[in-house]
Write a structure and sequence with these properties.
Helices cover 25% and strands 32% of the residues. The chain is of the alpha+beta class. Strands 1, 2, 3, 4, 5, 6 and 7 form a 7-stranded antiparallel sheet that branches. Strands 9-8-11-12-13-10 form a 6-stranded antiparallel sheet.
Length: 265
């Protein structure tokens, strides 16, 4: 075969290889998106009602201001008393000294701006239960709060095993810009614990990192595995120079269990 005869064959092989690569990429993208959608659907079906919105109501002179809030997840119930895990950094440690009340909104209870009512902020938010701070520890940046309610909410358990690098996870939160009960998916990106908080993590426990997109308002929300168990509590996120999400940060389940063990002593 002469050189001119080889050229069409080489072009044909090149075209076939390119087509095979494109098909493989499309398959991976389709399969990945399908898995993510299934994961999100499972969270919305089995876990979303454990997500709460915690709003700070601060009394100043004759007026009351309401924060945009942070997330939390229900992990325990005793009769009509629910217990919630959340991030400590969004909660004034001594609320009575700061004239602050913590109001709990269940997953299906809208904020005033979304309620479609015109009765005033104070009248609207007065219907929701106040939260009590049960326990906190700055080293974990975690707090346990409780509230009373006759409503039925899902109780999520804490995972007994640490998620491995590459494990799929879902984050639940209430972003300040976006919809309540937002669910995002990603994977564990850290291979070992990462220092968090103060310099070199001297006074705070290390965290895990993940790629489930989160933003302001997700703090305190749950990071779940496919079994709908809590593998972390979201504490924040890192951004790139364009202020776009880069990495999520969460206190891992082994540290959560240590934190709860200290509370129960």
């Amino acid at each position: 075969m002469n050189k001119n005869g080889k050229r069409p064959l080489i072009k044909y092989i090149g075209v076939m290889l390119c087509a095979a690569v494109i098909i493989a990429v499309c398959y991976v993208v389709f399969f990945s998106n399908s898995e993510n959608l299934d994961f999100i659907e499972a969270v919305n079906s089995k876990a979303i009602s454990a997500n709460i919105l915690l709003i700070n109501a601060t009394e100043e002179s004759s007026s009351i201001s309401y924060s945009a809030g942070q997330s939390g997840v229900i992990f325990k119930r005793e009769n009509e008393k629910y217990y919630v895990l959340t991030a400590l950094h969004g909660i004034p440690i001594e609320p009575e000294l700061n004239n602050v009340k913590f109001l709990v909104l269940g997953y299906d209870q809208p904020e005033y701006k979304d309620a479609g009512l015109h009765i005033g902020l104070k009248a609207y938010y007065s219907q929701f239960p106040e939260a009590v701070i049960e326990y906190y520890d700055e080293a974990y940046d975690l707090a346990v709060i409780s509230f009373l309610s006759e409503n039925e909410y899902t109780i999520l358990s804490i995972a007994s095993e640490q998620p491995k690098h590459g494990a799929p996870v879902a984050a639940i939160g209430n972003p300040h810009t976006g919809n309540r009960n937002t669910v995002t998916t990603g994977k564990i990106t850290s291979k070992k614990p990462v220092p968090f908080g103060d310099e070199a993590g001297k006074n705070q426990h290390s965290i895990i990192q993940h790629s489930a997109k989160s933003s302001i308002g997700f703090s305190g929300g749950a990071l779940l595995n496919r079994n709908m168990a809590i593998v972390g509590i979201n504490l924040g996120a890192g951004e790139n120079i364009f202020h776009q999400f880069k990495v999520g940060k969460a206190m891992p389940c082994d540290k959560i269990l240590d934190f709860l063990a200290a509370w129960n002593k």
